[in-house]
């Protein structure tokens, strides 16, 4: 079967450790797009932090943001699909954070708000671009609307504890996936469900899809796609879920994967 769609994670996959897009990756994506493959970024980022990448790559298809909770058109102006955390569940999560001294980061429209300080805030702003509005209690600025994503940045052991609570409290209704050992991303959907929706939207079968990623939050889309490729620096569980492993993100691993595994089977 020939491939018609590439679902590609952004941080740790498409971008290097300095959050730069290599010329090799840019060229490889240009080439497969010219050959008719739809290229869809799948990211935990919100749209504003993806806009520059979309414009550089001249992407014209859908954009999957906030780990699959929100699918937008390439301009970011039209919502194509949304599976959000309900306002009731958002309130429950924020109340738990307050009681256990977590400092969640929430996205409301294009604005990020949190009580984060120090190293984790610096990591977020360096990786994701937008400045964070500081608040002593993020629950007080929450506007009681469904959210696509709530981000927890904390010590790995506390991230594990939070994830265990989410699993027990919501039974899968709220997704909770790690991008890094200090990062837990809560959402109303996940990348696998978003990829399934993308497939139905474009009438593309799973066997006609390629997915490339590195984080735990990429596993669901890797398991859904016909061809799944993990980055060399991916978590071990992610590599096990993938059919292939490419070079690292600092070695233009996306370009390498496209040339080795994808272009030989383009429709």
How would you characterize this protein structure?
This protein has 267 residues and is α/β, with parallel strands linked by helices. It has 11 helices and 14 strands. It has helices at residues 10-14, 23-34, 51-57, 87-99, 119-128, 138-141, 156-170, 191-202, 219-224, 236-241, 253-262, and strands at 5-9, 38-42, 63-65, 70-72, 79-82, 105-108, 111-114, 132-134, 149-153, 175-180, 183-187, 209-213, 227-230, 244-245. The strands form 3 sheets. It has a 6-stranded mixed beta sheet, sandwiched between helices. Strands 2-1-12-13-14 form a 5-stranded parallel beta sheet, sandwiched between helices. Strands 3-4-5 form a 3-stranded antiparallel beta sheet, with helices on one face. A hairpin with a 4-residue loop joins strand 3 and strand 4. Helix 2 runs parallel beside helix 11 (253-262). The model has no long low-confidence stretch (mean pLDDT 91).
């Amino acid at each position: 079967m020939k491939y018609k769609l590439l679902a590609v994670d952004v941080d740790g996959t498409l971008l290097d450790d300095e959050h730069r897009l290599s010329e090799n990756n840019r060229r490889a994506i240009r080439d497969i797009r010219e050959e008719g493959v739809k290229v869809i970024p799948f990211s935990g980022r919100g749209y504003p932090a993806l806009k520059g990448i979309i414009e550089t790559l001249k992407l014209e298809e859908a954009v999957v943001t906030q780990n699959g909770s929100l699918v937008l058109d390439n301009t970011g102006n039209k919502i194509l699909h949304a599976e959000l955390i309900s306002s009731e569940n958002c309130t429950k999560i924020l109340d738990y954070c307050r009681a256990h001294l977590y400092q969640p980061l929430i996205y409301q429209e294009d604005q990020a708000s949190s009580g984060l300080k120090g190293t984790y805030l610096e990591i977020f702003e360096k990786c994701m671009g937008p400045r964070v509005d500081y608040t002593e209690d993020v629950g007080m600025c929450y506007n009681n609307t469904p959210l696509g994503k709530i981000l927890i940045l904390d010590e790995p052991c506390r991230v594990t504890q939070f994830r265990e609570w989410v699993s027990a409290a919501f039974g899968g209704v709220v997704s909770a996936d790690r991008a890094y050992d200090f990062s837990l991303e809560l959402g109303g959907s996940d990348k696998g469900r978003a990829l399934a929706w993308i497939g139905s939207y474009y009438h593309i079968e799973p066997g006609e899809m390629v997915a490339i990623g590195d984080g735990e939050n990429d596993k669901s889309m890797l398991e859904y796609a016909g061809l799944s490729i993990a980055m060399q620096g991916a978590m071990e569980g992610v590599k096990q879920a993938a059919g292939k492993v490419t070079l690292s993100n600092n070695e233009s691993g996306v370009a390498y994967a496209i040339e080795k595994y994808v272009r030989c089977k383009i429709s």
